[in-house]
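Input:
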Amino acid sequence: MSKEFLARCREIIGAGFVLEGAGMAPYLTDWRGRFTGAALAVLRPAGTSQVALLVQACAEWRVPIVPQGGRTGLVLGSVPDASGTAVVLSLGRMNKIRSVDTINRTMTVDAGCLLQHIQEAAASEGSLFPLSLASEGSCTIGGNLATNAGGTGVLRYGNARELCLGLEVVNAQGETWSSLRGLRKDNTGYDLRDLFIGAEGTLGIITGAVLKLYPAPAAMLTAMVALESPHDALQLLHLMQDRCGSSLTGFELMADICLTLVATHFPTLPRPFAMAYPQYALVEISSPESESHATDLLEQAIEAALERGFCQDAVVATSFAQSRGLWQVREHISMAQAAAGKNIKHDVSLPISRIAEFIDSADDKLMRAFPGCQLVTFGHLGDGNLHYNVAPPEGVPHDEFLQHQDAVNRIVHDEVDAFGGSISAEHGIGALKRDELARYKSPVELDMMRAIKAALDPLGIMNPGKIL
Amino acid sequence: MSKEFLARCREIIGAGFVLEGAGMAPYLTDWRGRFTGAALAVLRPAGTSQVALLVQACAEWRVPIVPQGGRTGLVLGSVPDASGTAVVLSLGRMNKIRSVDTINRTMTVDAGCLLQHIQEAAASEGSLFPLSLASEGSCTIGGNLATNAGGTGVLRYGNARELCLGLEVVNAQGETWSSLRGLRKDNTGYDLRDLFIGAEGTLGIITGAVLKLYPAPAAMLTAMVALESPHDALQLLHLMQDRCGSSLTGFELMADICLTLVATHFPTLPRPFAMAYPQYALVEISSPESESHATDLLEQAIEAALERGFCQDAVVATSFAQSRGLWQVREHISMAQAAAGKNIKHDVSLPISRIAEFIDSADDKLMRAFPGCQLVTFGHLGDGNLHYNVAPPEGVPHDEFLQHQDAVNRIVHDEVDAFGGSISAEHGIGALKRDELARYKSPVELDMMRAIKAALDPLGIMNPGKIL
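Output:
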């Protein structure tokens, strides 16, 4: 039976693009190297009509499909399980920018386009595509949309969801649905676009998208601000939003230990301050007007915050290179942590007003349960999103500490739940957090999700075992 | 049977809030007075738990439910059909602002709150709730969300969808689902929020919402700009977005006939220009900084547009009263049209880049089919949304011309479809455009919508006959 199925796949996309055996290896292991699955084959279609035919074949032979983009996800959403019954459907060959409409400020792309190529194509037209992630050189826009990616631009421009005006999707029946019209208003029935966005490939396969472009800012300016506490960070955020409005395009929080880790493992990166402070905020201003406008906005806001005692010190970048350097400190936190050893990661969100209180309370509970554990907390404060990572106490072997992973997760996620937060702010659920989801979601919501899944994918072939 | 059902309803909400007979009249007729339906009863619950019990009773007795807010919709979405078998579930008593979180910049409200009360409550906290519609004094936020309302603030702040962080919904089983947590990032499963938003009450009843607040701008400034053509309006829009970024908070287009109608029927309103031009744009700048910043931005942009020949003349308001006056001209177009007699309305959207071409082409086709007909075109150009209204030729009685409604709709909507547009930009489908939807939507999309409807409302009791 599987022979007939594979023969049909070869017929559709050509034998060279149906990978079996060792050729599948790069497609079976997740980004962080924690899990390697198995597959019947890896399919590499060249376009949407081939995807549709492949899905029809999968439906006929009841073969589960794991859609895959750049495989940079952190929750095992795009790799198959160990059963070897599924096919991986890799969209990597579908990497064309279909068109750019500068007046409509939109770009229409294949799902397999690398995010960075999209950013560059936008820049070459004098525009900005503001989705920005650490993995932008490897991740694809289809994956970004399937997981509703976040990143550092959300404060001003929103999540991937808000940057998409329309989709092309092959549904679980192998039919193609397109809303690639580039409309900013369209109230004609249910919002299928937002249902497929964030569904992690469990309802259908995103094959194309219309993305929103923005005018490239005339100037961007960055500062690192030293703070006493997360509470002061909230005051600073509020003050800057009031004064700068949507010109405030970045607001990242990081605890002192983050800068220490970066300084230890990446000694060539800048050290913004001679002395240590408990917390830091990386703030970014973008101006459509001019460099001097950006400078005035940023300096005046920081001055006001210093006067009111919300911040202790600040370093304002005076060149693009300096701005870049400050961002690199922020972007190297995860890598510095990885260099220091394994740790237990959480990607949580909270109402912004409760973040400081959450950090105090969760820190306290963890410190009591695991005295001396190191709390490497950083994140997108302006979005209420913390990467709340827990490393072993000094001297405790990382592998030994990782045995407490479930207990640590329980403390952190119970605390998130108690504060009205989310256990997955921007990484999604995949296979990794499926049990956690079942624990924290209400039965009513899970039932509605299951009803939708059954309605749109009655055979259960779309990325089974993910989310639900 | 219906006696038992009504007895149960009285038990749940009290006899005084189960209206029958003549008491129902105000709830049965649509806003524009075109249709009066019939109902078994009008139910006026006091809170979400009562709504849940009422829906459970409706499910038990198989009674269709028509959820109703301020009844200001334009597509017969919130009034019952003529059968008299349904109940109207009016949310008017659920009108409390539940809480305001100034640090999280959110407000949690009952669905029955008037939009204007929400705007005022936000303003009293120094914040802005930017949803702004002609009917804001009468419409409710639940209706705004159920129809994904648009209005004049979409260019900068998005549709109602983008202004909502979470919902409370009673589903078709009478279960309550809440996502009222005020989170800006939450990737834990399917996006139910956006599925209920815009579903026009056909999947469940929105009973509460968390809304996004923005800092109130320090200054807002308005100008009316005279233009040669819609094509020039697009150039002006592009230039202003490049120069002003998100400080450009309004961009409305109107043809000369709109100003003539307003001047005729509302002679006390300002006449911005001594001579007539083919088109006008109303543009608005909001600055988080200062009055002088807003003035500089606006004047410099208009100067640049004059230099490049994109516009012919401009009137910049120098006071709040003058700004208000210019907006009133825009807001009185519909009323001036109504005073002039009935007309055939269309609420369409297009890719912004194709609007000028669409207007030329649709105007031409209509003029050939109905020589001398008057094309009263205006709308939210920045969102690609036109109110493309067709009035009879001079001297032709309005009622006579309205007999051509179907033929006119066909020409306009076929043209919209040919240009890749939408036949309902912001008004929704309701009962009025259901047949049009069936004509223009793809079978794949309609099938997916029907599958979702059947999955979430298997008894078909939620606002039947609307959308699908």
